[in-house]
Structures are given as structure tokens and as C-alpha cells.
Design brief:
Blueprint (H helix, E strand, L loop, with lengths): L41 H32 L2 H28 L2 H24 L5 H30 L4 H29 L3 H20 L17 H11 L1 H16 L3 H12 L3 H25 L5 H18 L5 H29 L2 H32 L2 H28 L1
Helix pairs in contact: 1-2, 1-4, 1-5, 1-6, 2-4, 2-9, 2-13, 3-4, 3-6, 4-13, 5-10, 5-12, 7-13, 8-11, 8-12, 8-13, 8-14, 9-10, 9-13, 9-14, 10-12, 11-12, 11-14, 13-14
Length: about 425
């Protein structure tokens, strides 16, 4: 029997998105060749290419930054402080970033953020290559990067819908996650090589260049093909409205709660990996890059799997968070580097199952007119929790040991997911 060709994907709507109402996302399983169907949209394809370059460079900078702080201070706690300074602005100011995303052009906001991040990276590169870098320089620049992130994250989250329209939003979120994890797979390995070969300064220079590429790409997008929502007019109580709206919806409230627990205890994993690379396995900067790469290998697999998922349920979010915590807790007892690498790779898969499912569920549950604020609240919890979790895990690793810190990092999210799963089950039964 001759094979029949699969029908071409339906044309995407290029209309103004309604401010309210449910999103018409695709629920049927796509053929394998359409796993990344959102890339058929030229604007999203261009955005994804530039995003991939930027993510590789961003991970190079993060690995180089963390390792240089460890070299300058000899303290894992200092690495955690760097993470805290970078994420504290999101914790304190995140909702205001959402207000900007709802009221102004997301494309312009992202351009401004790319220029700001590139300036920070160039400053770090210049200080490192001239031998003038001090730990306070890293702290200060990390804080400025945090302020950039306040505007960047909610605008970036909502801009995906403007690029592809509501039909393939879930797929585009998965593609974004895949791109991020592919960059996280390559970036740490390149950073590890640069650290041992020529020093970390060049990682910062590469990131500055990548930020310039992003700013240029955003100016080249076809603006007439963007699915632009009507800007939300200013009014009193806009943040209170967003909080009440999010808390009233279980599909936003519970991913929000789990994101808070996971981000506080388990999202600052690079801090613990630095402790394992330096104090447990003694594998140096190259080994630290390898450990981050193994996490990204698993996460990349999880991102691809999420693009194939037909149904999106709250139970997937809870299960992903619970398994992520469980894998980290088991990894705490790993007696060898190869077994530890395997376990953190599995944890990366579980982490991306949680993160992608939670992101998709929150975005598709929020109406367009309020989505910027809702996503800023979600981002505030997810990223801002790391501002507290980074120093906490660094302190635990330094005073109780890397094994105990890893055990705490995994056990608390696993326990929280278990309690939430039982609670939701009882409500369904009742």
C-alpha cells in the first residue's frame, strides 16, 4: 500500500490576539517531522537562531563567572552570593517588569535588555582580561544583570505568543526550552575548555557579542507578521488584580507554589555542582563544566519529550517536580563521578519536564490582557527563589558538606510534591 503524505500544517493566524478568552492550542499528536512545527514561522525561526547563540554564550559566562568567584574567594558561599545578587531584583521588582510587558512593546523591551546585558558582559570581559577583576566587581555586575532580567523575563515569555500566535504556543515554549538546553549543553563544555586554555575573560567577550546579535535580530523581525495584543491601559491595582487572578486558578496557583519550592531548594544546582567538582571529586573547572553539561543532556531530552506531549495536566507538573527532587536526593549518595553524572542527567530530564509543563500550563491558563503580569509573578517566584536558595545551598555545602546540601536540595521538593499530590487526589475523590 503506497504511503500517503501527511497534510501540511495549517496556516497560522496573523491577526490581533484577543485580550481575553482561552487559547486555541493544538492537542493532537504531531508527526515526528512536525515536532518543532513552530519553527515554520519565519519570525520565530529567526528569534530561535539568535536565542541559541545567546544561550550558549550566557552559559559560558555563568560557568566562567561562578568558577572565577570560587578562585578569587575559595568560598562556595561566595558563589551563592553571586547567584543571589543576580536574582534578588527579580524577587523584589518582578511584578513591575510584568506591568511593562503588558503595557509596552515586548520587542523594544527585549532590545533594551540585550544592550544592557551586553554592556555588563563587556565590562566583565575587560576587567578579567586586564587582570583587574575583583570579587566586588562580579557582585556589582551581577546585580545590574538582575535589574535587566526584571524586564527581560516577562517580556520574553509573552513575546513567544506574538511570534507564533496562540495555535502553536505550547510547541513554541517547548522549542524555546529545547534551544535553551541545547545551549546549556554546549556552553558549559566550551566554558570549561576556555577556563583551562585561555582563561574566563573570553567567555564574557563572547557573551557581549551574542547580546549584540540578539539586538540586531529583534530589529529584523517582520513586524507585520507579529500577533500583537492590544496594550493594557494603565489603571490602579493592576498588580493586585494579577495576584488575585493567578491565585483563583488552580492551574496557575499550584505551578506557582511548586515553582517556589523547587527554585528555593533545587534551582541553584550549579552552586552544588561547583562544590562537588572542587571538594568531592576534585575535577577542576573542566569537571565543573562536564557536570553542568550532563544536567543539560538530560534537560534537552526532557525538552524534546515535552514537545511531543499531547495533553497538559497539573499532575505532570507535580510529578516532574517530585522526580527532580528525588533524583537529586539519590545523587547525594553517589559514590563515583560516573554514577553522579548519570543521576544528574536524569534529574535534568525531570527538571525540564516540570519547568516546561509549568510554563505551558500557566501561559495557556492566563488571558492575554493579564499574561505579562501573571508570567512576571511566576518568574519572580521561579528566579527570585534562587536569590535565597543560592546562598543557602552554598552555606550548607560549606558547613555541612556537599552531600548533605544535595540531600536537602532534593528531599524538600520531593516531599512538597508528594504532599500536594495527596491533597489534589483527596479533593478529586471528595
Amino acid at each position: 500500500m503506497p504511503a500517503t503524505a501527511s497534510p501540511a500544517p495549517a496556516a497560522l493566524p496573523r491577526t490581533i490576539a484577543p485580550p481575553t478568552g482561552p487559547l486555541g492550542v493544538v492537542h493532537e499528536r504531531l508527526p515526528w517531522r512536525h515536532t518543532f512545527i513552530s519553527l515554520t514561522v519565519p519570525n520565530f525561526r529567526m528569534f530561535t537562531a539568535a536565542h541559541f547563540v545567546a544561550v550558549v554564550a550566557l552559559w559560558m559566562q555563568r560557568i566562567a563567572q561562578d568558577w572565577l568567584v570560587l578562585e578569587l574567594t575559595g568560598s562556595v558561599t561566595a558563589v551563592g552570593v553571586t547567584v543571589a545578587l543576580q536574582f534578588t531584583p527579580v524577587l523584589l521588582l518582578g511584578p513591575w517588569g510584568g506591568l511593562f510587558a503588558d503595557r509596552f512593546s515586548k520587542r523594544r523591551l527585549l532590545q533594551v535588555c540585550a544592550i544592557g546585558a551586553g554592556t555588563c558582559a563587556a565590562a566583565l570581559g575587560a576587567l578579567t582580561l586586564t587582570g583587574a577583576l575583583a570579587v566586588w566587581n562580579v557582585y556589582a555586575i551581577a546585580l545590574v544583570l538582575g535589574l535587566v532580567t526584571v524586564l527581560d523575563q516577562p517580556a520574553r515569555q509573552v513575546f513567544v505568543n506574538e511570534l507564533v500566535g496562540p495555535t502553536y504556543l505550547r510547541n513554541a515554549i517547548s522549542v524555546n526550552s529545547t534551544t535553551f538546553q541545547l545551549g546549556a549543553l554546549i556552553g558549559p563544555a566550551v566554558a570549561g575548555w576556555l577556563l583551562t586554555a585561555v582563561g574566563g575573560g573570553w567567555a564574557f567577550v563572547v557573551n557581549a557579542f551574542a547580546c549584540c546579535v540578539t539586538a540586531v535580530m529583534l530589529s529584523l523581525l517582520r513586524r507585520d507578521e507579529l500577533v500583537v495584543a492590544t496594550p493594557t491601559p494603565a489603571s490602579r491595582g493592576m498588580l493586585r488584580e494579577a495576584v488575585a487572578y493567578a491565585w483563583a486558578k488552580p492551574t496557575i496557583r499550584w505551578p506557582w507554589v511548586m515553582a517556589g519550592v523547587v527554585s528555593l531548594f533545587a534551582m541553584s544546582l550549579p552552586v552544588l555542582l561547583a562544590a562537588y567538582a572542587d571538594h568531592v571529586f576534585s575535577v577542576g573547572a573542566g569537571g565543573y563544566g562536564l557536570l553542568n553539561t550532563m544536567v543539560a543532556v538530560g534537560a534537552l531530552s526532557g525538552a524534546i519529550a515535552s514537545a511531543r506531549r499531547v495533553r497538559l495536566r497539573l499532575r505532570t507538573v507535580v510529578l516532574g517536580a517530585g522526580l527532580y527532587g528525588a533524583m537529586l536526593a539519590v545523587a547525594a549518595f553517589a559514590p563515583s563521578m560516573p554514577l553522579f553524572c548519570a543521576l544528574v542527567a536524569v534529574s535534568g530530564f525531570c527538571a525540564l519536564t516540570f519547568l516546561t509543563s509549568a510554563n505551558q500550563l500557566v501561559q495557556t491558563s492566563a488571558n492575554m490582557g493579564i499574561r505579562g503580569r501573571v508570567m512576571s509573578l511566576y518568574t519572580m517566584v521561579l528566579i527570585g527563589g534562587q536569590a535565597l536558595g543560592g546562598p543557602m545551598l552554598g552555606w550548607l555545602a560549606e558547613h555541612l558538606g556537599a552531600h548533605a546540601a544535595m540531600l536537602v536540595s532534593g528531599s524538600v521538593p520531593a516531599l512538597a510534591a508528594g504532599v500536594l499530590a495527596l491533597s489534589l487526589r483527596r479533593r478529586v475523590v471528595a
